[in-house]
Amino acid sequence: MTELFETILFVCARRGSSSSWPLRNEGSEIDPVFKSGRQFSGQIRYSLNSYKVVINLCWRPRRIQNHFLKQGIRGPKYNFLLGNLKEIADLQPSSSQHFSLSHDIVPRVFSFYHHWKNIYGATFLVWFGPTVRVSISDPTLIRDIFLVKSDNFEKIETPPSAKKLEGDGLSSLRGEKWAHHRKILTQTFYSENLKLMIPTMGKSMKDMLTKWSSKMSKDGKVEIEVSEWFLSLSEEVITHTVFGSSYEDGKAIFELQAQQLVYATNAFHQLFIPGFRFLPTKKNIISWKLDKDVRNSLMKLIEHRKKSLECDQSEEGPKDLLEVMIKASNSTYSNSAIKVDDIVEECKTMFLAGKYTTSNLLTWTTILLAMNPHWQQLARDEVFNVCGARDTPSKDNIAKLKTLGMILNESLRLYPPLAATIRRAKIDTTLGTLNLPQGTELLIPFIGIHHDAELWGDDVNEFNPGRFARGVAQAAKSPMAFMPFGLGARHCIGQNLAIIQAKLAIAMMLMSFSFELAPTYQHAPTILIFLCPQYGAPIIFKKL
Ligand code: HEM
């Protein structure tokens, strides 16, 4: 089972019977009884709890199925407790299954979606344990969810183990706290601010390319597993973006965080045992210590930075995230001030979100250009035309790299680092002709929409950056068909950073080398939280 499904499973497992799906009428009859449960004897409470379990695990799913069936929405049958988790696992091809160089990847990486969409149509029900999700891939409905009726939908809670992985920062916040943080953090991601970071990003890239060149054999060739290198590159860029002038201290903190991530990922992989994360096992103790070290080091860094900000009020240089958060933490309005704990969580979130997504974009784009020498040459010609003799493109050069922009879009279409997202109806809502009761969860499969032949045409599974020549809005039958960074108020805050970094990195790579897939490359896209090549990406580079 892929991690995405584990994540989803987690959500179900932890949320269990507290799901707000509802049948609010029934809920309002039952809940007060349960709330005053202390008055009852243990036996009565036990009976009532059993009753609630039966309602949630047997009767409620049947009611939900009927509710949607009346509206013509079908899906695989609900199985007690597990829902469709077993079928989802069975539909996954085995990881050793041979896969050609095809870009028709949905049957492999999102097998359950591919399978049930073919049977039940674009909108269908699927059960993740006792939690139902309606899979939506109709662009008109997508527009309603993210833009027209976005106030009616919210993100679902991040389960505690996932929070430990990704931090309790912007991507998991909701309501006023989210709006406040988003407003503050956005300052760092304005294009004008990011452009000031280009020389630093260019230097990291140059250092990486120099190391590759030093590994060249006498015939001027070298094989590089690029995904590892791009992870380090993205880590450096995100460290600069978050910590700016405190880069060295920040780097040490992110190194601790990377170690902590390994332990948190391990815990995440383990079968869920309630309370397990509180047991003093060897791994848990190390993980707690690392967590404490990250927090203490960050606190120290924040104090240090506060003092230097008091002395230096100049507005020169890019605004890093730490600076904007520290300034917001000094707010005189105590309820809107960002607290030190918030800063810690935001740093964790940015580390995960900024490192793994952009590195995947770089990896897939390199693989695609290695597979398509024609587009590789077109992109290289453009880079030389625009940048001339410069070895690091300037901010003006980057804006002019149109072909490279099209290539990145096509890479994000075929291999979106984030394959899907989930939203929940906050209130009873109509979506097209669908009537969604409060609490209904929606699964929005970015990857499925990006590979839909009805939206993209018969060449949907071909690498054809030319489809973006007239802009993103004209590339498919609907402008909602392309959403690698999400849509609406909660779209990706790091989009500009990711694109600037990717353009810079690929342009510099094209200026130094030509490249092709190594004979050892195996095309095996897999979702491990993000969509990545299962066996890495070995590429042969040849000095130009
Ligand atoms: C190719 C690179 C990237 C891709 C494809 C990507 C994709 C996405 C998507 C699809 C969402 C929306 C999720 C949803 O609606 O549920 C999102 C949100 C987010 N992304 Fe990215 N992302 C990328 C790079 C980055 C970078 C570089 C950063 C940070 C430096 C970042 C930070 C975030 C954050 C914090 C959110 C949550 C925003 C909010 O809820 O207000 N992302 N990203």
From TrEMBL:
<keyword id="KW-0503">Monooxygenase</keyword>
<keyword id="KW-0349">Heme</keyword>
<dbReference type="InterPro" id="IPR050665">
    <property type="entry name" value="Cytochrome_P450_Monooxygen"/>
</dbReference>
<comment type="similarity">
    <text>Belongs to the cytochrome P450 family.</text>
</comment>
<keyword id="KW-0560">Oxidoreductase</keyword>
<dbReference type="InterPro" id="IPR017972">
    <property type="entry name" value="Cyt_P450_CS"/>
</dbReference>
<keyword id="KW-0472">Membrane</keyword>
<keyword id="KW-0812">Transmembrane</keyword>
<dbReference type="InterPro" id="IPR036396">
    <property type="entry name" value="Cyt_P450_sf"/>
</dbReference>
<dbReference type="InterPro" id="IPR002401">
    <property type="entry name" value="Cyt_P450_E_grp-I"/>
</dbReference>
<keyword id="KW-0408">Iron</keyword>
<keyword id="KW-1133">Transmembrane helix</keyword>
<keyword id="KW-0479">Metal-binding</keyword>
<protein>
    <recommendedName>
        <fullName>Cytochrome P450</fullName>
    </recommendedName>
</protein>
<dbReference type="Pfam" id="PF00067">
    <property type="entry name" value="p450"/>
</dbReference>
<dbReference type="InterPro" id="IPR001128">
    <property type="entry name" value="Cyt_P450"/>
</dbReference>
